[in-house]
Specification:
500 residues; single chain; eight-stranded mixed β-sheet; Rossmann fold; METTL25; alpha/beta; Putative myosin heavy chain; Methyltranfer_dom; 22 helices
Length: 500
C-alpha cells in the first residue's frame, strides 16, 4: 500500500540523518557538531545567508526567498527540498476535512453564548483547540449516531465542557490526576449553574456531575482562576452529562467496566474515544484501547510529548515492557529506532518559530558552553555529567559568568577551579561561533516536521493494519502557529455506521 511505502521512505530518510536529528545542543562544542555533522558545502552556505532566510527554514517562505530563486545556496536548497518531500502533506498522508466537517473552523456556526462559554477560563490557544475539536467530534457523533464520548487524559475538562455545554454530548472524562478531575467537576458545576439560572431550567434538568473518585481532593482551588470563587461563566446549550473517573489508561485498562461503572445499565453500544494533546504513551495506549474495545467505534486523537513515548528497540534489555514506538508492523519488522533526542525535536514547529520571530536564547548558548567548561575542567569526571540538568538558569542569570557560578552551585561543583576572568575568556572566544550554533539549531528545527510525520504515520499504518478498523486518516485540525501539535488521528471501525 502507498502509506506503507511512504512510511518506509520516511524511515529511510531519517535513518540517513539519524546522527543529526539525535544531536543534543548541549554537546555542540564538546562533540564538535558543526565540524562533524554539517556538510562542508552546506556549512559555507549557512554562514552566508541572512538571518531572515535562516529563520524561514522548514517553511514555504524559504523556497520563495531571493536566495533560493537566484540559486545562491544550491546544497542547502537541495537538502531542505528533501526535508520538505518527507513531510505529511508531501507524502500524501494527510486527509482534508470534508465540507461537512470543515465548518468546525468557522465560528459562525456557534451561537454567541457558546463562543463566550468556550472563551471562559481558557487561553487563546486552548479556545482555538477546543472549539475546533469539539465541532469535529460533534460531526463524527452525528455521522455515526452516538452521543457518548470518552475523553482520555481529560485534564481540567476544557474539551469535555465544550462537548457537554455546546453540543449536548454525554462525556466520561478519564484522568489519572484526581486534582484535575476535581477542577473539571467544579468548572462544569459552574457552567451548569449558569445554564440553569439563565435559561429554561427544564432544558438542563439532566445536567449533573457524578463524582466517582473517593480519593482525597484537598486541592487549593483558591489558586485556580476557575475556582468556585471566580467569575460566573456565560451559559451555553446545556443538556449533556459529565462523569469523571480517576484511572490510569494502559494496556490493562477495561473501558467496558469503566462505562458500566459510570453509566450503570444504560446499555451503551457505541462511544467516541477522543483526546486533546494526550501525552506520550497515553496516546499509543488510546490507540490500542480503540482497537481492542468493542464499544469504541470512532476515534479522534491529538497526541503530544513524543519524547515521553517508550521505544521498544532502543535496548535489548527492554523485554516484557509496554512500548509506544514503533506501533506498525512495517517499522517493527525493521526493529526501527528513532531516538529520544529526535523525538524531542519533533516538538519544535518551524512555522511558529518563524511567525514569532524567535531567536536563539542565551540559555542554549550558555548551556553548550558550560558543558565545554565542565569537560575541560573536570576531565574524565565530566563524562558523568552528560545527562545533568541545570534547569532554567539562563533567564535568571545576568551574564555567562553569573550563569556558570549558579550552575556550579546547583551541581555541587563549587570545587571546580575557574575564575571570573577565565569564564569571560571562554565567552569571548566562543561567541564567535554563535552564528554556527544558531544555524545548526535552525537546521534541526527544519527536520522536526519529518520526525513528527514518522511518529504519526507509524500510528496511522498501525490502525490500518487492524482487521477491525475500516477507515483511518491523519487530519490537520489546528493552525500550527497557534497550536503546533495540530494533527489528529481519526478512525472508524467496521461496525460503525458510516465511513469518515
Amino acid at each position: 500500500p502507498k502509506l506503507n511505502r511512504s512510511l518506509n521512505a520516511l524511515a529511510d530518510f531519517l535513518e540517513t540523518h539519524k546522527e543529526f536529528v539525535n544531536a543534543h545542543m548541549v554537546d555542540f562544542f564538546t562533540k564538535r557538531h558543526w565540524e562533524n555533522l554539517v556538510d562542508a558545502a552546506i556549512a559555507d552556505e549557512l554562514l552566508s545567508i541572512s538571518d531572515q532566510v535562516l529563520s524561514s527554514f522548514g517553511t514555504e517562505e524559504f523556497f520563495a526567498s531571493t536566495y533560493v530563486k537566484e540559486q545562491k545556496a544550491p546544497a542547502l536548497t537541495e537538502l531542505l527540498e528533501a526535508v520538505k518531500n518527507h513531510t505529511l502533506p508531501a507524502l500524501g498522508a494527510c486527509t482534508e476535512i470534508d465540507a461537512a466537517i470543515s465548518r468546525c473552523t468557522d465560528d459562525a456556526v456557534l451561537s454567541e453564548a457558546q463562543l463566550r462559554l468556550q472563551e471562559w477560563c481558557m487561553s487563546r490557544k486552548k479556545n482555538h483547540e477546543v472549539a475546533i475539536m469539539g465541532n469535529m467530534i460533534k460531526s463524527l457523533g452525528d455521522q455515526h449516531d452516538t452521543r457518548y464520548v470518552v475523553d482520555l487524559g481529560s485534564g481540567k475538562g476544557y474539551l469535555s465542557g465544550n462537548l457537554i455545554s455546546a453540543h449536548a454530548m454525554t462525556v466520561l472524562g478519564i484522568e489519572s490526576a484526581a486534582g484535575n478531575n476535581h477542577r473539571a467537576e467544579t468548572r462544569f458545576s459552574k457552567i451548569e449553574r449558569a445554564s440553569r439560572t439563565r435559561r429554561n431550567p427544564s432544558a438542563v434538568r439532566n445536567a449533573t456531575v457524578a463524582r466517582l473518585s473517593a480519593q482525597d481532593r484537598s486541592t487549593d482551588e483558591s489558586a485556580e482562576s476557575c475556582s468556585d470563587e471566580g467569575p460566573t461563566p456565560p451559559s451555553g446549550n446545556g443538556g449533556g452529562r459529565f462523569r469523571t473517573l480517576t484511572a490510569r489508561v494502559d494496556e490493562d485498562f477495561d473501558l467496558g467496566e469503566a462505562l458500566k461503572k459510570s453509566f450503570q445499565d444504560e446499555g451503551i453500544d457505541d462511544v467516541i474515544l477522543c483526546g486533546l494533546h494526550t501525552c506520550g504513551d497515553l496516546a499509543t495506549s488510546a490507540l490500542k484501547l480503540f482497537v481492542r474495545c468493542p464499544r469504541a467505534k470512532v476515534l479522534c486523537l491529538v497526541g503530544c510529548c513524543y519524547h515521553l513515548t517508550e521505544e521498544e528497540f532502543v535496548s535489548p534489555q527492554n523485554g516484557g515492557k509496554q512500548f509506544g514506538f514503533p506501533m506498525s508492523q512495517v517499522l517493527r519488522k525493521r526493529k526501527y529506532v528513532l531516538g529520544r533526542n529526535a523525538r524531542m525535536l519533533a516538538a519544535q514547529c518551524a512555522e511558529r518559530n518563524k511567525e514569532e520571530k524567535k531567536v536563539l536564547p542565551n540559555s542554549l548558548f550558555y548551556r553548550a558552553l558550560l558543558q565545554l567548561v565542565l569537560s575541560e575542567k573536570l576531565g574524565n569526571e565530566a563524562a558523568s555529567l552528560d545527562q545533568v540538568k541545570v534547569g532554567k538558569l539562563g533567564s535568571a542569570s545576568s551574564s555567562f559568568t553569573d550563569y556558570v557560578c549558579r550552575a556550579l552551585n546547583k551541581l555541587k561543583l563549587r570545587h571546580v577551579g575557574i575564575t571570573p576572568d577565565e569564564i569571560r575568556a571562554y565567552e569571548e572566544e566562543y561567541t564567535k561561533q554563535l552564528r554556527r550554533l544558531t544555524a545548526f539549531q535552525q537546521m534541526r528545527i527544519a527536520f522536526a516536521a519529518c520526525v513528527e510525520a514518522l511518529v504519526l504515520l507509524d500510528r496511522l499504518v498501525y490502525l490500518l493494519e487492524q482487521e477491525a478498523v475500516t477507515d483511518a486518516h491523519i487530519v490537520r485540525l489546528f493552525d500550527p502557529v497557534t497550536s503546533p501539535r495540530c494533527y489528529a488521528l481519526c478512525a472508524v471501525k467496521k461496525t460503525a455506521r458510516e465511513k469518515l
